[in-house]
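Hey, can you fold this one?
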Amino acid sequence: MEYEPAENRYAGKMQYNYCGNSGLLLPRISLGLWHNFGDVDDFGVATDMIKYAFDNGITHFDLANNYGPAPGSAETNFGKILKNDFQSYRDEMIISSKAGHEMWPGPYGDGSSRKNIMASINQSLRRTGLDYFDIFYSHRYDGVTPVEETVQALIDIVKQGKALYVGLSKYPLEQQRIVYEELQDSGVPCIISQYRYSMFDRSIEQGNLALAAEYGSGFIAFSPLAQGLLTNQYLRGIPENSRAAKSTGFLKVDQVTEERIAIARQLNEIAARRGQTLAEMALAWVLKDARITSVIVGASSVKQLGDNIKAIDNLLFSETELSEIKSLISSI
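Sure. Predicted structure:
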């Protein structure tokens, strides 16, 4: 029997922003399936998180062809959840996926060539059981493929009806500008740009964020909690079953440094004064910039996801708080 979402899912606290110069609204909190939706994870917990997200106004679900592990399994599992519980609600969802990182063996399963992009979206559509993606990204600039080749593949994907919109992720400034200009000239603008951004990684402030705004692209931040370092999870070291403790995780033990833990503890004190958890404040800090359309959160439980959503209860910072935070993170 198909799941029946909460009738008041749009009447709650969730807020929505227009994505750049487009008419597409995205929730300020989006759910990413990078972690916790693969074959190594609990399918029941994954299902519960999708339901909870949707019940609380999260309409955007972010995938990539290589998410898992194993690669592809996050798309497959999400497709099963859609089929079992959300067939009647597809038009209320924004579902995005990407291609560009290594997905299958051999010379054609990696990179940003037309061959890889076209094969990847076809595979992703089959795995998810979808007719189209709302947004499809070039996941990275591979350093070899001419940007114009990748861009033409994205244009053709939209013209073939396989995606409604296109975006880019993690492109260097020079190539980022070329993508914007080529897509703009084609009549298929880049409506969204996805980059890593957190208090512990502010590299996009060197130009990527400003360039997106210049060309009318929305901006969505991934890893806003620095893979969990900006939560209370690591304030006393590396706990069992944390991302850093798992062999399948992307956060490595050597990234959990004493310096970062010490800074996180002091940030946690500021958050407590604001009536927030460290994670809530870290998300609010990313969202304070009007150029940020949305943040992508990953969660391992319904409770964790619920705690993240609370971030939008308090998005305002005093000048004193911003100054304190800037002083703490300036060495990172």
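Confidence is low (pLDDT under 50) at residues 243-248. Let me know if you want another pass with a different chain boundary.
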